[in-house]
């Protein structure tokens, strides 16, 4: 078994061509005993694991570390706890496991490994964040969990222009907008690659599979519904096509005019089930649900706005791409990945319960938010001298 796994990982490492490390890599404390990386399909979790394996190979003996995925057919019958014990007996110190959610009762095995083999470091991933989070009742005290998102606009530009670009805290952006924009505009043209990012740039596989990008994106969407949500018992087989129809109905709806009864009728789902299905699609990162700041976050509360998770999904699935929806989808995605975001009765969004943002074109006025403290206009232009007007693209530099 070990020989097969080492041969498999050798092939994977030989084909690992990318040196670029994601924003999350430097945030992970790899000295922790057990680390989980969760996130949507296609955002680069496997690559991150293999990059860590590559680093271990350069600094430690071969037998100290091992990578494998539960995608491999010959590990389907593996007893994970027993395997970890054998691995440690042979000097193993780092076990890197991909697609852990495909292993039945993985939480029980990981908990036992943590308790019995304290010197073994385990780093694992799961494509559907829901599965890991559901299991955290057993693992919460043992596992340090990190969430990997798709590429930020900053990361996309780094890969596209082959230059290093800084990231900024939100507070920093709001206080020093002019200086930051001036500095960045000296390094690249902010809108030169903007449309390319909106249509294709959120998923790292775009850079290796440009010709097949749409096909792969449709595949990730289908597998999230047909495999991840189904296997978790969150949906039933007969609901699969209805959930796909639900996504298309969301495409045809204005984010801020959500009519639950109409959506239920068009997607052939009961009104009572719509709320839970919307929540599942949100957890699977196919949707981005934004609640009103006054309503709280209850699963069965009516969402104030519902977006597709990112603009790549929007361009791939929706026949119409209203510019206002594109702007808000980008903002909700990039800011929501790093901050708490709710909708507002006055502006479009409230971030961290403190800052109000109104998103629009370069001619958007302050009328709607003029009397609100800590309020800003977000405009889809490259630059503005007004300190309260922030270019939309800049919010792609939060990570």
UniProtKB/TrEMBL annotation:
Residues 31-154 form the AAA+ ATPase domain. InterPro entries: AAA+_ATPase, AAA_14, P-loop_NTPase. SMART domains: AAA (SM00382). SUPFAM superfamilies: P-loop containing nucleoside triphosphate hydrolases. It holds the Pfam family AAA_14. Gene3D superfamilies: P-loop containing nucleotide triphosphate hydrolases. This is ATPase component BioM of energizing module of biotin ECF transporter. It comes from uncultured Sulfurovum sp. The lineage of its organism: Bacteria, Pseudomonadati, Campylobacterota, Epsilonproteobacteria, Campylobacterales.
């Amino acid at each position: 078994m070990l020989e097969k796994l080492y041969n498999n990982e050798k092939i994977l490492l030989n084909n690992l061509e990318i040196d670029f490390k994601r924003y999350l890599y430097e945030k992970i404390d790899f000295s922790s005993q057990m680390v989980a990386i969760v996130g949507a399909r296609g955002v680069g979790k496997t690559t991150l694991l293999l990059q860590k394996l590559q680093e271990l190979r350069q600094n430690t003996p071969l037998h100290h570390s091992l990578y494998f995925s539960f995608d491999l057919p010959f590990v389907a019958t593996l007893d994970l706890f027993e395997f970890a014990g054998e691995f440690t007996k042979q000097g193993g110190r780092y076990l890197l496991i991909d697609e852990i959610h495909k292993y039945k009762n993985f939480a029980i095995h990981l908990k036992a490994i943590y308790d019995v083999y304290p010197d073994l470091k385990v780093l694992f991933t799961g494509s559907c964040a829901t599965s890991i989070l559901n299991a955290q009742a057993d693992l919460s005290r043992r596992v340090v969990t990190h969430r990997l998102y798709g590429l930020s606009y900053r990361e996309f530009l780094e890969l596209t222009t082959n230059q290093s670009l800084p990231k900024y805290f939100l507070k920093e952006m709001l206080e020093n907008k002019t200086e930051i924009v001036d500095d960045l505009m000296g390094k690249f043209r902010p809108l030169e690659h903007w449309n390319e990012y909106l249509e294709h740039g959120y998923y790292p596989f775009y850079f290796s599979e440009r010709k097949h990008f749409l096909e792969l994106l449709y595949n990730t969407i289908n597998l999230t519904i047909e495999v991840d949500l189904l296997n978790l018992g969150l949906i039933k087989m007969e609901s699969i096509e209805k959930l796909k129809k639900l996504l298309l109905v969301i495409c045809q709806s204005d984010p801020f005019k959500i009519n639950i009864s109409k959506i239920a009728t068009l997607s052939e789902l009961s009104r009572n089930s719509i709320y839970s299905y919307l929540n599942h699609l949100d957890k699977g990162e196919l949707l981005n649900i934004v609640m009103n700041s006054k309503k709280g976050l209850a699963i069965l509360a009516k969402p104030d706005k519902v977006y597709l998770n990112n603009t790549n999904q929007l361009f791939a699935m929706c026949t119409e791409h209203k510019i206002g929806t594109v702007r808000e989808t980008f903002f909700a995605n990039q800011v929501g990945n790093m901050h708490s975001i709710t909708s507002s009765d006055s502006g479009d969004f409230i971030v961290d319960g403190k800052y109000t943002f109104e998103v629009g074109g370069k001619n958007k006025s302050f009328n709607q938010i003029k009397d609100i403290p800590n309020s800003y206009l977000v405009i889809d232009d490259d630059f503005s001298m007004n300190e309260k007007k922030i270019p939309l693209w800049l919010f792609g530099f939060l990570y």
